[in-house]
Amino acid sequence: MNRFKAVKRASFVGIFGNIFLLLIKGTIGFLTHSQAMLADAFNSATDVLSSFMTYVGNQIASKEADEDHNLGHGKAEYIFSMLISITMFILGFVVLKNGIQSIFISSSYIFSKWLILVCLVTIGLKFFMFLYTNAIGKKYNNLLLKANSKDHRNDCVITLFNLLSAIFSFYHIHYVDSFVGIGISLWILYTGVKIFIESYDVLMDKTISQEIKNQVMDIIKCYEEIEQVKHFNATPVGYLYQISFTIYVDGNLSTFASHEIANSLEKEIDKEVEEIYLTIIHVNPVEKS
């Protein structure tokens, strides 16, 4: 349960931190008519939603398996990740449209020192949030937090460009503001696509990576009694995998002895390969002359 508690804390940090940034960016962006700052505010709005979805998805995923959900509720993380990506598509297109329109409309941009200050505060806070969520996401292999941490990291870069546009505007070069706004919208769309693909792969039961499979096969090779392995399958169960395969052993072995090999192998794989949630092995005999 430590995993879910840690993700819950990180979600609250994200929610309140991004609400604060949304308010100050939105206020300054509205007052100065800065397309870059307004786009950055929209980006913070997606971050608030992402953090909220992380919290809700984590609450559902933390539920134990029951009669209706024998493998638990882990895929909730990926369902909510997909919802986050769809929301990012919508907001990204809205910001892109506004940015393009601003190029052809006479600029009403008003420079303010608050633009610089908001950018600096955002970069500092977002960098802290990146370090925090990245550490927890890696420790517990949580897709939602990994997506959040990447978003926090990317926001530092986005706001850096926002800061650049504010500096240019001080010298009355206002077109940079529109292009930065467009750039931010394209980044929102790109990030949304990446999260969507990763979530889609898990929900469509994409198998384990070749690296993990090789790790499992290396363990199997240590058992001299196993002469062949067939029907290897892997199914994602939340952030982990359930694997199954058939091993072929000497048909002259007793039923007890052959199944003891399978039991020992199952325990070793579950212990040594952290991505594996459950190993199921079927035993078949090989006829000996």
Question: What letter string, H or E per element, gives the SSE order?
Answer: HHHHHHHEEHE
The overall number of domains is 2
Main CATH class of the largest domain: Mainly Alpha
Neighbour order of strands in the largest sheet: 1-2-3
- Report the total helices: 8
- For this structure, what is the CATH homologous superfamily of the largest domain? Cation efflux protein transmembrane domain
Structural class from helices and strands? Answer: mainly alpha
Query: What's the number of extended β-strand segments?
Result: 3
Ranges with pLDDT <50 over ≥5 residues? Answer: none
Output the keywords.
3-stranded mixed beta sheet; 3 strands; Alpha-lytic protease prodomain-like; Alpha-Beta Plaits; 289 residues; 70% helix
Account of the protein in words:
There is one protein chain. The chain is built from eight helices and three strands. The protein has a three-stranded mixed beta sheet with strand order 1-2-3, covered by helices on one side. It is elongated. The protein is mainly alpha-helical and 289 residues long. The chain has helices at residues 2-32, 35-61, 76-104, 113-140, 143-170, 175-203, 210-221, 255-272, and strands at 228-237, 240-250, 276-286. 37% of the residues are buried. Helix 1 (2-32) packs antiparallel against helix 2 (35-61), helix 1 (2-32) runs antiparallel to helix 4 (113-140) and helix 5 packs antiparallel against helix 6 (175-203). The mean pLDDT is 82.
